[in-house]
Amino acid sequence: MGLRDYYRQFEAMPPEEISAELRARRDERRRTAVSKVDPLDLSGTTWHEPPHPDAVNAATFALRRAVNEPPDLAATALREALAAHHGVAVAQVAVGHGAGELLRALLGRVVAGGGEALVAWPGWQPLPALVEGAGGVAVPVAPAAPALLARAGERTRAVIVTSPSDPTGERLSRRALRDLRSRLPEQALLIVDEALGEFAPGGDDAAGLVADLPGLVVLRSFSKAHAMAGLRVGAALGPAELVGRLGPSGGVGAPGQAAAAWALTPDGLALARRRRAAAAAAHRQLAAALAGSPLAAPPAGVPFAWLSSDAEDGPALAARLAAAQVFVAPGRLWGDERHVRAALRGPEAVDRLAGALRG
Amino acid sequence: MPRNDPTDTGGLFIGRRPGTAPVRFRTPPERGDDRRRRTDGVLAGLVLVIEALLVLSVWGPQPVGWLWIGSQLDYRTGSVTLGIACAFFGLIATLILTLMVATRLDGLWQLLRRAAGHDQREGMLGRIFVVTAVVAAAGFTAWFLLLEGPGSSLAPR
After folding, report:
1. Residue B15 near chain A (CB below 8 Å)
2. How near does any CA of chain A get to the CA of B17, in Å?
3. What 3-state class would DSSP assign to A78?
4. pLDDT tens, residue by residue, B74-133
């Protein structure tokens, strides 16, 4: 080694060169690292995005006022907004801690003492337990008007339909519901769980029938399309003498009332329409991705898909998805061994679901 | 890029303090034997002395030299402006040249120190400037007050 080379080897690297080397080393480490796959939970049905900031603002505004005082026990403003939106009298609207709690209270009045409730099945998964908890007898029946009418009898106190259905996404039109109501025994109350009603086509929801049909109760929720599951707000629309007794004695919390009231403003309703369109687009995206494969999901407007495969059963499908860190609700929750229910949580999640499904 | 100055981070050090990183070489250097390292140490000392003398010249010999050149120019051409301009720009030019040479000497000194086995992370140029300025100021004060004597207004004869 020459004299010049000997001393030049003691030259320090300049900071820029050191940084470049460290960056290159980091990039190489990332490139060669084992990629970490985050789990994707598609087992729920709630909307995957947070509530609109204005809804949160409304709730926060209410929260920062006098929360040491009880809220408006009658939820007047919210009930008036609901009544105006659905075209019913204010007295026909009850507000409670979610559609599920209102349904529990309703069943306690309708099927207590061994009353029979026909449950269109598959439907909202807790329905049979709610009927049993209220002291009634749950009878699962195929979710079609002829089957329900064929099974309805003198002992039937309620017929419960989920529309749009969780998990299948199928729905009964207003015409079908009107027909069903007219042919059911008079003592049998028709209860429509319309928690996913915002995902039904505009002008064809069951809530619009309440003003005309006395034996109909419709349950609505702010947990799904409005993404306010944490606030626990729902509504029951039906005969005044019945729904007037369903609300919680202490009322619904002021933040929940305020956020729900915002959801019924033109901006809130427009948001729900955009989410309905997004859910329909997600279905189209999934259908396109699964075209040509043995996998299929019936087209629907709800933010989840009822998936089945000609090549494997539901548990195998769920296990295969779980191996790819994609978790879905198995159909056996509804006694179905062919299907799984997968939430459609935005385009990226649908892509990943489709990729996992196709293997 | 994260800030690592404790005055920016509420007293917490995030990462290494500036200027305290160890020296990184492109390849691990092959060090000489003990004799060569002792020689490098001596050479480093020699370079440091030259560097100090060079910087010291900025505070005395160079200005004096350019003042003399300027005065000569003034005497020969009869132009005071030309003499002042020559002294001023000449002084600036040699100052820049001195800094360039001193910087290279400082780099050489660091190499020699590392070759001598020291973990030399910084140069000495900044410190040399401060020390030589103090030395020059002290020397000028001593010359002015003790050798040359104050002017007539301070101590009239």
Report:
1. no
2. 14
3. helix
4. 999 999 999 999 999 999 999 999 999 999 999 999 999 999 999 888 899 999 999 999
